[in-house]
Amino acid sequence: MTGKNKGICHSCRRPGHYLSACPKKQQCPVCGNGFVKWMEVEKKFANIGRLFFCCSSNCGYFKWSDENLNGAYDVGESSGVSAGSPTAKDEIEELSRIFKYLLRLLNDKM
To answer: Which positions, given as ranges, span the membrane (predicted)?
Structure first.
């Protein structure tokens, strides 16, 4: 059985593209390093089929989508990402943020 999160964008939940190319992707409001993913619970628990938001960098950000009328962000929060295709500069800046985050994690473990 194919999962309900397979073959669709994890940002807007539409087919035809993936999170990395989604024009509507938003940065995580907690860490700013990852992007907000919009996923569906697939495991057979009480919340099966329920939609939630989490971070692509696994920073711990989590919100149920049906409990937040503003989507992934609370009032006053912003993604800092504008709609449109990412440019090479955007991609380089994203890689820089990822490397800084990984370096911080490495230093915290030492």
So the answer is: none
